[in-house]
Specification:
The chain is mainly beta. About 10% of the residues lie in helices and about 25% in strands. The chain is built from 1 helix and 3 strands. Strands 1-2-3 form a 3-stranded antiparallel sheet. Strand 1 and strand 2 form a beta hairpin. The protein is globular and about 35 Å long. The two termini are about 20 Å apart.
Length: about 70
């Protein structure tokens, strides 16, 4: 059995995105959480793996301007 993949990504509310998975699960995820868990080198130290982005530095009204799946 293969791992579930996202097959639905769309706005859910003014502060959440809806992510649907091929296995049938759907989750409304706050935009702040999506931003906080970004795995890029600007958000996570490449050498230590420690998150350097502070959740308190993310504006509570953050919204995506574009969404795409990668990988």
């Amino acid at each position: 059995m293969s791992a579930p993949t996202p097959n639905q990504i769309e706005p859910f509310s003014s502060s959440e995105i809806l992510i649907g998975w091929s296995g049938g699960d759907k989750y409304a995820v706050p935009y702040v959480e999506v931003r906080y868990f970004c795995p890029c080198a600007g958000c996570v130290d490449e050498n230590t793996g420690k998150r350097v982005l502070l959740k308190t530095s993310i504006r509570p009204d953050i919204k995506p301007t574009q969404v795409q799946t990668v990988g």
